[in-house]
Specification:
Length: 474
Amino acid sequence: MVMAFLLIIGLSFLLMAGTLTNMLSNYLFRERIRQDRAGLEKWAVQTASSLYTANSIQMNASVLQASGELGGRLLLLDADGKIHMDSFGLLNGTRLSVPEVVSILVGGKQVDYGVHEESGELVSDTGKVFNRGSNQNWTSLSSAGIVFESEVIGVLVLLSSVSEMMNSLYTLQTRMTIIFVLVATAAIISGMVFSGILTRPIGVLTKGIQRMGRGDFSARVPETGSGEIKQMAQAFNSMSGKLESMDKTRNQFVSDASHELKTPLATMKIMIESLIYQPDMEEGLRTEFLSDVNKEIDRLSAIVGDLLTLVRADGKSVKLDRSRMFLSDVVEDAAHRLRMLADKKSQTLNLELHEMGEIYADKARIDQVVYNLMENAVKYTQEGGTITVTLTKQGREAQLTIEDNGPGIPEDNLTHVFERFYRVDKARGRESGGTGLGLAIAQQMINLHSGTIQVESEEGKGTKFIVLLPLNKG
Ligand SMILES: Nc1ncnc2c1ncn2[C@@H]1O[C@H](COP(=O)(O)OP(=O)(O)O)[C@@H](O)[C@H]1O
Ligand SMILES: [Mg+2]
């Protein structure tokens, strides 16, 4: 781009300089030719009769006077190109065969003009004529035919120096060339510096993108500069930051999932090996081992099922099978299923379900969420505890709270309970048969239904989960 720019600038500068010198030289020469020609023609007329009558005295007087008036050396030639009179008195009797004379005597022109460098190019039959010994001398040669009774009988030639004019034109040209070279150099240097400054941040950004392309999400670029480049750098950094954290979460998830799957597998392996290597194992123990293996298989399939639920909803490919339903039905159903467990722990399970409208939701998923929350409350609350489930209307939302007076969740764990595989008490959680995915799934499902889920807890006093779901309009 810079090169194209320079090329355009350079060409237009050259064109402009060329046109300018051309115009100037045209103007100067035209003026000169006009002056010379007017004078010459006048004197051609005046010398015509003296040339025709071969009146040398008169010719001499005329040529000298004309030379003084026109400010140059004057030559009077006859029809053969022989010099009759030289105002310098040097070339009398010699022949001058320059193009400007030939064009009049042979070519039939009325007037002619030419510029010669004094290098011996301009010759009479005696050789070099005008060489005055100094170089860079330019002579203009203006000629006019002398006509007598419509017959060309000679030529009047005016020689005058145009060195000054030519030299000043040359100087102008040289100066312009120098200026052009200087300007072009400056333009190239500044162009290179400028484009360097402009493209450097883009280069840095490209390197960052390449690093990220190779899977290195820690790539960040400096957010320097201004305008679009800076915005681009910021956008890149925020993107790579998100990707990095996503990558970390994913890795964590995979390692957690593997760990969770490995534990029941290891347990099963030990028990099955015992069964293999102790063929004479007592019947009761064998049955116990086998039922333990069966439990581990149940755990494994529970984990795999929960993982599938989570991953499907992650990919946003989950389709909610919505219908109008009463949240109270779901709560009552879950309570029914949990009654036995609660009774076994001598817990009180209170339901305070207030009359309110329907919600528009996926029944199976809401069921899963409500059951998990209530199961957690029963599971983690000590024997003799109380669990209260309340359903109320809050504006346009249904509010479901599940409260217990169990052990509570320590404050620093509270923010993590919705994370995958997070358990407050790792050993106890696993032994209680949970997958550690229940709350993560609950949050995801509630979010999919445009609802919210929150937790409040105080260690030693109890825990309260609050779910808000939009009520069906109309
Ligand atoms: N009502 C509650 N009282 C105390 N702790 C709870 C309660 N509900 C959940 N938790 C804690 O939150 C963790 C995550 O719960 P969840 O995701 O359902 O996993 P899981 O029940 O399979 O362990 C539980 O392991 C438990 O430590
Ligand atoms: Mg649970």
